[in-house]
Design a protein that fits this description.
single chain; 480 residues; alpha+beta; Glycosyltransferase; five-stranded antiparallel beta sheet; 9% strand; disordered N terminus
């Protein structure tokens, strides 16, 4: 009887889900809610088409990865490019030009924030005094020392470029300013790519190839246990998945524009990953390498070491390279890397962020940034331990290695089906959480306003992006 009742319940839920998927009233509410949310975010929250990370409910206090003014927008996700992608998703789901124009406005914000060096800083300034300190590409050339360093850290330049490329395609490559900005950024990324295929964390001009010879990774004879205060922006950088994100951008550029030079750039970077795998006894990867292709210091809590954190991003980049190219050379390093990291698991089943070169002892820092083997007094702002990703990587490897060595990327978007009961439930929750002005205001605090900040309710870009995505996904489904 219980089994029969359970089956009947599931059957009724399925019928209800299918019925509600075709419910014109819900579809109308979702369409109206999406428009209201986008209009509210544009008209009340946006600055020149750009966005930060979160705001107090009254918009008097704002922040990205730091306190921000009303004339500042953020590039790092979930800032301006991420909101722009959500707007493009709304356009692609509905076909309504209203959302394409909203996305174009956000794209133009990124155009105005592009530096002369080709990429983007973490933030874009629109106050005239602050703006005059930056070498923005669209501004008249000014004398003096201006900020012109593009960053690949935290997916800043990469996220901006992804959004502009997707917008360029949606506009059928007819918007000259959008197209020009994307082309300029892609050209600069190729120019600043090192001969060995790597990219730096930050750049302002192309490197001198003579200073960056192509070498395989090796261990230094010795390294300082004391932070030397080096300038690490030119180092070959996996930290925060910087290089992996550029590889993704280059493959996307190849698919968008059909130019083989972008695919070639991605594959050149794949060659660097192969060069960067350390020899035994630690066949993993470092966060960053100097020009001698040896692990090196970056920030005061990032020593020369083998990383258990960024290594998973490197492995995932190798999976992507194999799926895009079908070349099994990108799978070859993975079994050795997985075996090494699996043997390096801590007693609690996690991986250390840093393993000492050659000895493989886990490295940590004290709260006053002294290098140590003990995890008893670690700073809390940084993850010195990470989860075990080896099982997931092994499963993905086992699946890929069985498949034919041909490009494995899915061709084109899937055709929309009917909305699931789960999606419908999410739509109803999203709509019920929206206030009369089209906002999603939630309980929360700001992170960079000081201990006495009175904020208790916030408007969060992450929530906006997620909820717009839910409504867009539902409106893209079949209504019958």
């Amino acid at each position: 009887m219980r089994i029969a009742a359970s089956v009947l319940t599931l059957f009724c839920v399925s019928l209800a889900g299918n019925s509600r998927a075709a419910d014109p009233a819900l579809r109308q509410r979702a369409a109206e809610g999406l428009k209201k949310a986008v209009d509210s975010f544009q008209n009340e929250v946006s600055c020149e088409g750009g966005y930060l990370w979160r705001y107090s409910e009254d918009l008097q206090r704002r922040e990205g990865e730091g306190k921000a003014s009303a004339t500042t927008v953020w590039v790092q996700p979930p800032g301006t490019p991420s909101v722009g992608m959500a707007l493009l998703g709304a356009y692609e789901a509905t076909g309504e030009e209203h959302y394409l124009e909203a996305a174009r406005r956000t794209g133009m914000c990124l155009v105005r924030g592009q530096l002369a060096s080709g990429g983007w800083d973490y933030r874009i300034e629109f106050d005239s005094k602050e703006r005059a300190r930056y070498a923005y590409r669209v501004e008249p050339a000014q004398k003096g020392k201006l900020r012109n360093t593009s960053t690949l850290d935290d997916d800043a330049t990469q996220a901006a470029l992804r959004m502009l490329m997707r917008l360029d395609k949606a506009l059928e490559f007819r918007d000259e300013k959008i197209h020009e900005a994307a082309m300029f950024a892609l050209a600069r990324l190729i120019e600043v790519q090192y001969p060995n295929g790597a990219w730096p964390q930050r750049f302002d001009s192309p490197p001198d190839p003579k200073q960056f010879p192509v070498k395989k990774a090796s261990y230094p004879e010795s390294w300082s246990r004391t932070y030397p205060g080096v300038d690490y922006k030119t180092f070959y950088t996996f930290n925060d998945n910087a290089m992996n994100d550029v590889i993704d951008v280059m493959f996307e550029a190849w698919r968008t524009y059909g130019d083989e030079k972008y695919r070639a750039s991605a594959e050149l970077a794949g060659g660097f990953i192969l060069l960067a795998q350390m020899p035994d006894p630690q066949p993993g990867w470092a966060q960053q390498y100097n020009a001698d292709m040896q692990p090196a210091w970056a920030r005061k809590f990032e020593p020369p070491s083998i990383t258990g954190g960024e290594a998973y991003g490197v492995v995932r980049a190798l999976f992507q390279l194999y799926r895009e190219t079908g070349d099994k050379k990108y799978l070859e390093p993975i079994p050795r890397a997985i075996a090494y990291y699996r043997s390096s698991l801590l007693p609690n089943g996690q991986l250390a962020r840093f393993y000492e070169l050659k000895t493989n002892r886990p490295l940590y820092f004290t709260k006053d940034y002294q290098l140590t083997y003990s995890d008893a007094d670690m700073p809390t702002h940084y993850a010195f331990k990470t989860g075990d990703w080896t099982e997931s990587a092994q499963r993905q490897y086992d699946q890929l290695v069985k498949l034919s060595p041909e490009p494995l990327r899915p061709e084109g978007p899937r055709k929309p089906g009917k909305a699931s009961a789960k999606l419908i439930s999410q739509v109803e929750s999203v709509l019920s959480a929206m206030d009369s002005r089209g906002r999603w205001v939630e309980e929360g605090k700001l992170h960079y306003q000081g201990e006495n900040d009175p904020t208790r309710k916030v408007i969060d870009c992450t929530t906006f992006i997620r909820n717009v995505g839910v409504l867009s996904a539902y409106l893209a489904t079949k209504g019958d």
